[in-house]
Structures are given as structure tokens and as C-alpha cells.
Amino acid sequence: MKRTEFNALIARNDEVGKHSIGRALVHLLNRQTEDEQATNQTRHHNNRGFTSGDGRRGAITAKFYLKHRNLLDWQIAYWRERDAKGRTRIGKYYRQIAEEATKKAG
Fold it and tell me: With 0-12 CB in 10 A as exposed, 13-18 as middle and 19+ as buried, what is 15?
């Protein structure tokens, strides 16, 4: 999946867009270590899963998605926010998400 395709997918304002963000968060949660998943924090700087700034919110949102199979509008808005470089908050994890998608497809 190319970055432009990924950005178009997560920008969609329909169920597909919501679920793509939810699934991406679950992929990132699965890349966290077991102790990070249990505590909802990023403790290891291993370039896997969420950054320390997003660790708690990312883990909780991913677990919410797993439980409810849906995300609330404010959760979607948070992950679609753009940083100073113009990337969405979820977009900074593109490389990891693309890696997981390739594993699943292949």
C-alpha cells in the first residue's frame, strides 16, 4: 500500500475510513510488547508500536475498537489531526502499518 492510498483510506468519512483507523490502531497495539499492552504505556524505545506520546491514548483507543468494533467521532478526529509537517497523527505510523498489511496479505 502506498502512502497516498493509506492517506486517502483514513481520510474517508464513512465506515471504511473509521474501520481502517481502528484496524491500524490494533496493528500498532499488537506491535507493542506485552508489558506495554498491559499498562497502556510505551516503555521501550524499539520503534515498534506507539510512540511514548501516543502510547496511552493509542492503546486505550485500540482496545475500545476491539471491544466495540467502532470508534467515536472524537477518537477519529484525534487520529486525523495534522502535525506541523502536515501528517495525520496516525499517518506517522504509516511504515509500521504498511509492514503489517504486507505480512497479512502475503
Answer: exposed
Mean pLDDT of 54-58: 97
Domain range summary for the chain, segments of one domain joined by +? 3-105
Dihedral angle at the C-alpha atoms of 26, 68, 90, 55, nearest 10 degrees?
-70
36 burial via Cβ count (<10 Å: 0-12, 13-18, 19+): buried
In terms of pTM, does the model score above 0.90? yes
The per-residue pLDDT of the chain, averaged, comes to 95
| Residue 91: Cβ-neighbour burial (10 angstroms; 0-12, 13-18, 19+) | buried
- State how far the Cα of 37 lies from the Cα of 104, in Å rounded to an integer: 21
Question: Which pLDDT value is given to residue 34?
Answer: 96
Biggest CA-to-CA distance, the chain: 35
The H or E element containing residue 18 is helix 15-31
Answer left, alpha or beta for residue 40, where phi above 0 means left and psi between -120 and 50 means alpha.
left
